[in-house]
Design brief:
Strand content of chain B: 15-25%
Pathway (chain A): Amino-acid biosynthesis; L-tryptophan biosynthesis; L-tryptophan from chorismate: step 5/5
Largest sheet of chain B: 6 strands, mixed
Helix content of chain B: 40-55%
Number of domains of chain B: 2
GO molecular function (chain A): tryptophan synthase activity
Oligomer: heterodimer
Organism (chain A): Micromonospora endolithica
Structural class of chain A: alpha/beta
Number of helices of chain B: 17
Catalytic activity (chain A): (1S,2R)-1-C-(indol-3-yl)glycerol 3-phosphate + L-serine = D-glyceraldehyde 3-phosphate + L-tryptophan + H2O
Number of helices of chain A: 12
Distance between the termini of chain B: 44 Å
Largest interface: A-B, 43 and 35 residues
Function (chain A): The alpha subunit is responsible for the aldol cleavage of indoleglycerol phosphate to indole and glyceraldehyde 3-phosphate.
CATH topology of chain A: TIM Barrel
Shape of chain B: globular
Distance between the termini of chain A: 26 Å
Chain lengths: ~260, ~425
């Protein structure tokens, strides 16, 4: 079983959900992003999702897009992302990587899988890669023992849902809302239904993303999902902070609040 | 357009998943797959549905003003040593070939029971065309446009608003066409139930590249017959400018099966393909994934999209439709860059010899034609016959062209 799977099993045994916290690599700087993700782990984030910054992030809302732009303007390279993953994995928390497909295709799919595995990464979340186009990644992830998380959506048909989930390893990512990433005041009614549809076809744990920004919302999602995925709200802590210390403080506070939330479903 | 022309929607390519060789396909969020499947089904049904064909054909004829003329440009021909036949798409309603695509997609939108269309636009031409079709079909219309482009194209912004569209400025990234496309994609993911994304060129995820090609292929179907009627033979070459590439595919498609007809696509070479200021994705880019499809992309070593440049806003895009990538790789079509200066020289030549002001996009096709004419003549040992897709008219370009030639008085130059 993958390290992500172990984390989900342990949480399940504790009667709680896993907290997945997302941050773009190299935001606001390479060292700054390592400090941010380390602080998140120390404050209770179970799994870190490192997003490779990309020039055209169509599944991300304005907050993550701005953070990605800052990282790219700072000159972060794909190779830096691997270094960041290695540093964050050293905290002991499983690290999963979220990436649009073109940076991987340009690095070389097999080469990236090899280097990701050797950096201690567990696998990839691929928001713009569907299994039908993923032959090269399916082979590379098998070769290097990496997890594959494809997305499922409320609009996925039953047949597509089953097909997509059959290609997943580690966990399944359920996009709770029809929309892009970003904190919302209410999470979606469609999410519980989507999670139950996924559970009907797999034993893999299901993480729910898009929209969670408070401990209370995390608690609601933890009531029906195995994992609560939080991105924009965490990124905003760093974006809105006047300096690095304040950003880390805000990150710790929110991470702790969310960690409390996933323990009180 | 004849019923026969519409009877084979996809021809022999792409495959059912939208692949042109190793190009094309779908690189999209799962949330869009259901909508793309729905669109794929609606398109395939419509292409063989007689009532759709009749309605589309009537609109093209009575509203858009097609078939467009094939005009023998004698004075221009005499200057360049080739017999040039201009496919006058500039005379269509709204001033370009794009009206064919928007009418087709707006009809499909109605058939799918959707009530809202969104579009991206660079110079504003596709935005105006979409707003036009939305007005005609009583659809809500939202157009995403880069904040930089909104400033550069105030008149087209006003035209869209007159037609009832909402123009949304995009302030993310480079604030130009590619960012407008990202924003439209985000809107579509969130509102896909009632919204159709009316993509303006033969790019994006399947079925857009093949579907858009099918809606504009009448250009080539008409031109092929018109050339036979006029000259008694097929042309030696067919030329077009290539940004996303819809006008080029539209005129190429009918000739792909004619081995004697050379196909040339002219990309925007900007300040030169040896500089970093151009938009020649095939000549100067490499294979990658952008906006839902695998194609040639202007990108850095890490796969980050780089900004394109062209004097023509309509060609100023860092990708190209996947069918062009495939036609290039198979060698069926030849793609060459044309610089800003070469395009503007041809722009002036057409103005002065024929009394026709072309779109700067189309001036790239003219300039490329000027460049290949002597080689073709030498190869054939006679004057070549070349059909050029004059894809749009230059009214929209009076300001940039006036600037370029330094012929605006101080007041009109702002």
């Amino acid at each position: 079983m993958s390290r992500i799977g172990v984390a989900f099993d342990k949480a399940r045994a504790d009667g709680r959900a896993v907290l997945v916290g997302c941050m773009p690599a190299g935001f606001p700087t390479v060292e700054g992003s390592i400090a941010a993700m380390t602080a998140m782990v120390e404050a209770g984030v179970d799994v870190v999702e490192v997003e490779i910054p990309y020039s055209d992030p169509v599944m991300d809302g304005p907050v993550i897009q701005r953070a990605s732009d800052i990282a790219l303007a700072g000159g972060v390279r794909t190779a830096d992302t691997l270094r960041i993953i290695e540093a964050v994995a050293a905290t002991g928390a499983p690290v999963v990587t979220m990436t649009y497909w073109n940076p991987i295709e340009q690095y070389g799919v097999d080469a990236f899988a090899r280097d990701l595995a050797s950096a201690g990464g567990t696998g990839l979340i691929t928001p713009d890669l569907i299994p039908e186009e993923a032959d090269e990644w399916l082979a590379a992830s098998d070769a290097y023992g990496l997890d594959r998380t494809f997305l499922v959506s409320p609009s996925s048909t039953d047949a597509r849902l089953a097909m997509t989930v059959s290609h997943c390893r580690g966990f399944v990512y359920a996009t709770a809302l029809m929309g892009v990433t970003g904190a919302r005041t209410q999470t979606s009614d469609a999410a519980p239904l989507l999670v139950s549809r996924v559970r009907a076809v797999t034993d893999l744990p299901v993480g729910v993303g898009l929209g969670v920004s408070t401990g209370a919302q995390a608690g609601t999602v933890a009531g029906y999902a195995d994992g609560v995925i939080v991105g924009s709200a965490l990124v905003r802590c760093v974006l809105d902070a006047p300096d690095q210390a304040a950003g880390l403080t805000a990150l710790r506070t929110l991470s702790a609040d969310l960690a409390e939330g996933v323990r009180t479903p | 357009m004849s019923a026969d022309a519409l009877a084979t929607p996809a021809g022999q390519f792409p495959d059912t998943a939208g692949h042109f060789g190793r190009f094309g396909g779908r690189f999209v969020p799962e949330a869009l797959v259901a909508a793309l499947d729905e669109l794929d089904g609606a398109w395939r049904t419509a292409m063989t549905d007689e009532s759709f064909q009749a309605e589309f054909g009537a609109l093209l004829r009575d509203y858009a003003g097609t078939p467009s003329l094939l005009y023998s440009a004698r004075r221009f021909s005499a200057r360049i040593g080739a017999r040039v036949l201009l496919k006058r798409e500039d005379l269509n309603h709204t001033g370009a070939h794009k009206v064919r695509n928007v009418l087709g997609q707006a009809l499909l939108t109605k058939r799918m029971g959707k009530t809202r269309v969104i579009a991206e636009t660079g110079a504003g031409q596709h935005g105006v065309a979409t707003a036009t079709a939305a007005a005609l079909f009583d659809l809500e219309c939202v157009v995403y446009m880069g904040a930089v482009d909104i400033e550069r194209q105030a008149l087209n912004v006003a035209r869209m608003r007159m037609l009832g569209a909402t123009v949304v400025p995009v302030t993310a990234g480079s604030r130009t066409l590619k960012d407008a496309m990202n924003e439209a994609m985000r809107d579509w993911v969130a509102n896909v139930d009632k919204t159709h994304y009316l993509i303006g060129t033969a790019a994006g995820p399947h079925p857009f590249p093949a579907m858009v090609r099918d809606f504009v292929r009448g250009i080539g179907d008409e031109a092929r017959q018109q050339c036979l009627d006029l000259t008694g033979a097929l042309p030696d070459a067919v030329t077009a400018c290539v940004g996303g590439g819809s006008n080029a595919l539209g005129i190429f498609h009918a000739f792909v099966g004619d081995p004697g007809v050379r196909l040339y696509g002219f990309e925007a070479g900007g300040a030169g393909v040896d500089t970093d200021r151009h938009a020649a994705s095939i000549t100067g880019g490499r294979s990658g994934v952008l906006h839902g499809t695998r194609t040639f992309v202007l990108q850095n070593a890490d796969g980050q999209t780089v900004e394109s440049h062209s004097i023509s806003a309509g060609l100023d895009y860092p990708g190209v439709g996947p069918e062009h990538a495939w036609l290039h790789e198979t060698g069926r079509a030849t793609y060459l860059p044309v610089t800003d200066d070469e395009a503007m020289a041809a722009f002036e030549l057409l103005c002065r010899t024929e009394g026709v002001i072309p779109a700067i996009e189309s001036a790239h096709a003219l300039a490329g034609t000027v460049a290949i004419a002597p080689k073709l003549a030498a190869e054939l040992g006679r004057e070549p016959v070349i059909v050029v897709n004059l894809s749009g008219r230059g009214d929209k370009d009076v300001h940039p062209a006036g600037d370029y030639f330094g012929i605006l008085d101080k007041e009109s130059a702002r």
